[in-house]
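Async update (no meeting this week)

Hi team, since we skipped the sync, here's where things stand on the single-chain job. The sequence we agreed to prioritize is pasted below, unchanged from the tracker. I ran it this morning and attached the output directly underneath so nobody has to dig for it. Comments welcome in thread, and please keep replies under the output.
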Amino acid sequence: MTTLTVPARFCGPPASGNGGWVAGALATSVPATDHTTPVTVTLRRPPPLDTPLDLATEDGVTSLHHDGALVASATPADTSPSPAAGVPADVARAAEASYPGLTHHGFATCFGCGTERAPGDGLRIFPGPVGGARVAATWTPADATTSDVASTWSALDCISAWAVGIGERAMVLGRMTASLVALPRPGVEHVVVGEGRGEDGRKIRTAASLYDDAGTLVGTAEHTWITVDAEQFGWARTT
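Output:
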């Protein structure tokens, strides 16, 4: 048995891993797949930080465990996620000024969308509305540590929650299916688009897509978010 550790740098909520980063890191361990293979990851409990998690594959399921408890599991997906339509870079760039997280952010240190992360450390993806239940932002990967598979899954993670109101209600990633056409290029401005796709009780369905500077699709994800108790996850309420 091997292990996977989520460094504290890649947090989502303050005390646990960013769901997209953890899902992407686990996806790279699924046998007979690469970044172009659609993989579905289900998160069962908050992934602890700076803690070796047991990683194993059995009966076609790759899973993470902590102290015997299932943290997350991954399998090849039956179908590819359906892309969210792109928007021009200038539209996405302008939308960033209306990013709700600039006013209030429940997880301000989140690796993907946190406003308290320094440039080059977090991804600093700050999506604003572009019409309907859709948001968009630009993203320029700083270097290889923010353009690998796990970080690209993170880029395709948080943005979709801002399309469905994470600024007003606490939610965490429950499931994510993603596939990448290619890895993003460091130093190149990309566009990320997120959209809502329906709700069922505590479950909220979303999607996100990443486009390069030529408007070519780089990757797509579909998600299920779960609304949660704010205090349990360290989500900062408005004052």
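Quick observations from my side:
The longest strand covers residues 190-200.
The mean pLDDT is 94.
Reply here if anything looks off.
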